[in-house]
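#random but structural
TW: two for the price of one
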Amino acid sequence: MGLAGRIAVVTGTAHGIGTAIAKALTEDGATVHGVDRDTADLTSAYLCTRAVIPGMKARGWGRIVNISSAAGLTVSRTGIQAYASAKAGQIGLTRQLAAELGPFGITVNCIAPGFILSNPTTQIQWDGYGPEGQAQMVAGISMRRLGQPEDIANGVQFFAAERAGWITGQTIAIDGGHAFL
C-alpha cells in the first residue's frame, strides 16, 4: 500500500492500458480518478499535466508519468508521421517538465510502450498484419510475446512509488526487448 493517502488521475481508463494502470494504482492504495475522452479533452498531454501541477506544487510532492510510444523513440510501424512526432515531443516535454518541477518535489517520467494489444485500434492494426506479419512482429521481440496492459502498469507503479523520488526526466521503453533487435 505504498500509495496510501495519495491521489492519482489516470487518463484513458475506458480500456486497455489506462484501465490496467488505474487498477494497479488502486491496489497500491491510491485513490484513483479515471478520466477518459468522454469526460475531458485528452488530445494534449501538456494540458492534462498543467492541470495537476498547482496542486502538486502546493503539496511539495507529485509523480507525473507520461505514456508515449516506441514510435517516439524510433519510427512508427504504420508510417504515421504525426503520431511519431507527437510521441517524440511528449518525451521532450517529460524532460523539460522534470527540470522545471524537480525543485517542487515533483518527478516527471515517461514510458514508451511497445505494441500492446489493448484497444479496438490496436486490434485492427494487429488483424491487418495477418498471420505472417503477426509472427514476424512477435519474432522481433526478445521476449517472443506481445506486451500486456499490465506490463505498462508495472512501469507506472515503479515511477509512482515513493522510492522512485530521485528518478526524473527518464523514458523507459517497456517493449519486451524490441528495441534491441
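TW: number two ↓
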Amino acid sequence: MTLHQNNEPPGQANQISLQGESFVNVMQLPMSDKKPQQNGDLDEQRDPQSFRQLDPYVTSYVCLLVPRFEEHLLIGDLADLLPIWLKEICISFGWQLKFIDIKPNYLHWIMTVSITTFPTKFMKIVCRESSRKILDDFPKFKQKNMSDDFWAPWYLVGVGQAPYSQESIQSYIKQIRMEQGLY
C-alpha cells in the first residue's frame, strides 16, 4: 500500500508508516485458476475474497479516499450515488469494480485494473471524475471547498483482494487530518 498525494507526478509518492504498519507493497498477487462468481450485483458481493481473476494481465487494488473537509460527509443521496458513479467510471475505463464500502468519512473499494495502468493514473481519474460529479450535483460542497477536488490530497492504494481493516482506515484518516494540520 502506498500513501500518494494526488497532485504529484506518477512515480513520486509519499510513503508513510502509520502506527508501525508499513503501507508499501509492490508485489503482484498470484492469480488463481478458479472462475469468478457470476453474480454481477455489487450489493450481494460482500466478500471480496470470493472472486478470483482469470486474466493474468490484471491486478486487484484496494483503494481509499477521504473527503477534503471533515464535515463533508458521504451520506444520504451522495452515498447512494457514489457506487453508481464509481461503477460508471470503472466501466468507462475498462476496469472492474469488485467491492465498495461507503462510510460517512471515507470511500473504500476494490477493483481490477490492467497491469499496464499505474495506480497513480487510475486514482487521478477516479478522483477527478468523482469530484466533478459530486461538486456538480452537490453545490453546497463548493461553499467551503475552493478547489475542484472533493477529496483530500492523499489516497491509499495497495495491491490485494481484501479490504483494509477498520484500524488501518482510522489510522490513515488520522494521518490525513494531521497532514492537513487539523490534529
